[in-house]
Specification:
The chain is an all-alpha fold and 112 residues long. It folds into 2 domains: 1-36; 40-110, no CATH class. The chain is 76% helix and 0% strand. It has 4 helices and no strands. The protein starts with 13 loop residues before the first helix and ends with a helix.
């Protein structure tokens, strides 16, 4: 009894073989592209891109999340101050939330 083995380059598998080789060559090119990015400036630039994108999306949301822009600005100032003091994320969030709560309660009392 003879077994017939399909060769990888046979007519039935030619499309799959060509796709595999094409994908392998593309992946190799992408890998070589990443190996060429050894400059210090480019690596430091790419390190800060996610933070810049997150800031660009978060900052407008901070200023429009409350009823008053005054309470949002106060919470932003308090959050930045607490963060620069070296406190953790939970502490910063709680301080900003408490600031919004207090300023929102005090604003009606200050308006004449």
């Amino acid at each position: 009894m003879k077994f017939r083995c399909k060769q990888l380059g046979s007519h039935e598998n030619r499309g799959a073989y060509e796709k595999f080789v094409g994908a392998f060559v593309s992946i190799r090119k992408i890998g070589l592209l990443f190996l060429c990015w050894d400059t210090c400036w480019l690596q430091s630039f790419l390190y800060y891109v996610p933070y810049a994108c997150l800031t660009a999306m978060t900052f407008p949301a901070i200023l429009t999340a409350t009823e008053s822009p005054v309470s949002a600005a106060a919470a932003l100032v308090v959050a930045v101050a607490v963060a620069f003091a070296g406190k953790g994320l939970m502490t910063v969030a709680v301080c900003a939330s408490v600031t919004v709560f207090l300023v929102e309660r005090l604003l009606p009392l200050l308006s004449f």
